[in-house]
Amino acid sequence: MEHIERESMEFDVVIVGAGPAGLSAAIKIRQLAIENNLNDLSVCVVEKGSEVGAHILSGAVLEPRAINELFPNWKEEGAPLNVPVTEDKTYFLLSDEKSQEMPHWMVPKTMHNDGNYVISLGNVVRWLGAKAEELEVSIFPGFAASEILYHEDGSVKGIQTGDMGIGKDGEPTHNFTPGYELHAKYTIFAEGCRGHLGKRLIAKFDLDKDADPQHYGIGIKELWEIDPAKHKAGTVMHGAGWPLTETGSSGGWWLYHAENNQVTLGMIVDLSYTNPHMYPFMEMQRWKTHPLIKQYLEGGKRISYGARAVVKGGFNSLPKFTFPGGSLIGDDAGFLNFAKIKGSHTAMKSGMLCGEAVFEAIAAGVEKGGDLAIARVTEGEDFFAKELTAYTEKFNSSWLKEELYNARNFGPAMHKFGTFAGGAFNFIDQNVFKVPFTLHDLQPDFSALKTVDANNVKPNYPKPDGKLTFDRLSSVFVSNTVHEENQPAHLKLTDASIPVNVNLPKWDEPAQRYCPAGVYEIMENDDGSKRFQINAANCVHCKTCDIKDPSQNITWVTPEGGGGPNYPNM
Question: Which residues form the signal peptide (predicted)?
Answer without folding.
Answer: none
